Each structure stands twice: as structure tokens, then as C-alpha cells.
Amino acid sequence: MSNVIFNLADTTGADIVNARGNLQLRSTRLTIHAYDLFELLGDNAADSLGVTGSNPRRTVPMAEILRQCNAASKIILSSHGPLDATNHSVIKDPLNVLGGELGGAVPNVVGRSVQISLDQMAALIGRFLPGNRKSYVATLICYAARTGNFAANHGVAGQLAWTDSFACQLFARLCVGRTAKLTMSARTGQHGYSRTTGLSEVQTEAAVEAEIDAMAPQDHAGVDAWLHATRMRALAGGQAVRDAATVNFATAYYTAEAVLMGPQKAAELRRMLTAHGAGLPPADRLQFENLLHRLQRDANRLQVAEHYGKIYYFFDPASQSIKIKRDDRNRIGWHSKTLLQEADLATVLA
Asked: What DSSP letter does each residue of 122-188 carry, written as one string?
């Protein structure tokens, strides 16, 4: 069994390393082929990023990559998905590789990231999908299955327009002209992996709600200044007894921020909410309450669950239709899927 991973997430290649490692945690017998799609830029004049000519960085012949894709049980596409947009994904480019090489050829180079449109991504990945047999594409793109109504609860099969998600729009473009069935999966939340099992871990709806709350414009300058001043008092020493609770709280906060990650950090932040609230001077009470909200929100943002928020897209070339189903995996591992929506391909593309 083999998988092929295509990276459109970052120009450093870090996402490929992470994805490969987590897949190997699941099965040591899995053969994994991994490629940066950036190395395939410039392969022909039809390239969606507008680069022409051959690319000397690519060492594996295109014919071999196509052969691997044809034999693969799964083709994996990695990119970064924004929570509040369904018309593009994002390539992180910290070293300005794309901006430096492509110059003005890509009008959507912004700072250290590049926005990739639906049409661009479909053109890049579509060439690798076997056209004569059923294929499966798994997206590692945060929030790709989330609809334009991103603030709504996607954990229930409510009246959402599931066809307007980034994933469904990309899927529809990949289905154009296909004569074989195609399946794709995507997630409604931020996507990660368990460090022990390699299984997918996805933000719960409570975590996404906290993420949306964090996006709202808020002035935390007062809270941050209070934390900094309190921390400086702790470092200076010689604190009055009345300051002890405030200083202890700030010290615990900075310690949690600096050394804890993931679930451990979330647990510590929750503990701090109750352990350091009593005894604060009245002058610090308002800032403390503001910070409590932020700490609880940050803790909530870390809530993840295995097999959560997985949406499947199925294309039937005979009927030219797309079925969208939610994966409802029960406690003993059996799969059941709830039909969320069915639509004609032409309707989704319109």
C-alpha cells in the first residue's frame, strides 16, 4: 500500500516531514512518496502559477510521479486553510522563496505567504489524479470543509450550504471531465496529529467557537501591560505581601506560556483559573477577569478529538452528482455516514 503527499503548505518542507512521520506511526508497512508542488512549477506553460520552462530542482521524472499516483491508495494534499474564507488556501513562505523566484508573476504574493485560489490548486493537483479508475484524495487543510457560514455549528447536520466550502468547490473542479469515481475528505476544524498514534486530531466545535472569538477585535494592551509590569515586580523581588497573589499569578502564567504545549498547556491554564483568583488586590481584579476570559478561550482553542469533523465528498460520473456525507464513527470503530447534501456538479460549479 502506498500514499503520495503533495505539499502546498509551506516552502520549507516542514509539513511533508510531519505528515510522513505521522503516517508512518500508523503503519510501518506504508510506502510514502512525498513532493513539494513548488518543485513542479514551471513544468509547462499551462502551470497555474504562470511559470514557464523546465525546473532543474525536480529530480523525479514526471512520468514516475504519475505512476506512483496511479498506484496509490490515497493522494494527500497539504495546505493552510483560513477559518473565514472559502475561496483560497495559503502557502507559508517564510524565506520568500516564491516571491523571490516568481517576482511579479504571482500577483497574490503578500508578505511571507501566498494565497492559492481554487482554480490554481485544482490545476496543480488535477494533473496527478488517475483518470481511468476510482481515486481518493485526502486534504490536510484546516477548515476546508467549513462552509461560508463559518460561525455556525458544523457538528450537527443542520441547514448549511455544504457545497460552498473550500473543499467542495475544489472537489467539483477536480470532477470536471472525469469518467471515473472520485472521493475526497476534509475537516471542519484545525487539523493536527496525535504524537503517539499518528491519528488525526481536529478541533471540536467548542474549539472553533473559541477561535472565532479570538478573531474578534479586542484591546488586550491593558491586560498585557499589567502582566508585564507584574512580572517585572516578581523579577525585582522584595514584594509586599499584598502583591503576592498577583505576582504568583503572573509568574504561573508566563511559565505556562513558555514551557507547556498542547493538552498540558490547556490543563495548566484551566488550573490557573481557580488556583490564583483569590486574594488579588481590588486594583488588579478587572485585569484579572479580562485575562480569565482570554485564558479560558485559549484553553478551549486546544480542544481536539480523533476522527472529528470529517466530511466526505463522492462523485458519480454517471449521474454527474456530488454527495456530501459526514463520518460518524462510533466507539467500537464502525463507520456510518450521514448524508448532508446532494447536488449536481453543474450546480456546485455555477
From this structure: HHHHHTTS-SSS-EEEEEEETTTT--SSTTS-TTS--S--GGGSHHHHHHHHHHTT--S-EEEEEES
Closest C-alpha among 105, 89, 85 to residue 42: 105
Listed in sequence order, the residues at least 6 apart from 120 whose beta carbon sits closer than 8 Å to its beta carbon are 48, 49
Predicted confidence (pLDDT) at residue 57 exceeds the cutoff of 70: no
Mean pLDDT computed over every residue of the chain:
79
Is pLDDT of 330 > 70? no
Rounded to the nearest 10 degrees, what angle do helices 262-275 and 282-301 cross at? 150
Give the residue from 189, 186, 184, 229 showing the smallest Cα distance to 208: 189
Q: What was the pLDDT predicted at 341?
A: 94
Confidence (pTM): 0.79
Q: Pick from 49, 61, 59: which is nearest to 101 by CA?
A: 49
Cβ density class 257-290: b for 16+ within 10 Å, e for less: eeeeeeeebbebbeebeeebeeebeeebeebbeb
Q: How far is CA 47 from CA 9, 68, 162, 195, 337, in A?
A: 18, 21, 29, 36, 37
Q: What is the pLDDT of residues 2-31, one digit of tens each?
A: 999 999 998 887 877 888 888 888 888 899
Which residue from 170, 198, 2, 18 is spatially nearest to 81, judged by alpha carbons? 170
Would you say residue 213 has pLDDT above 90?
no
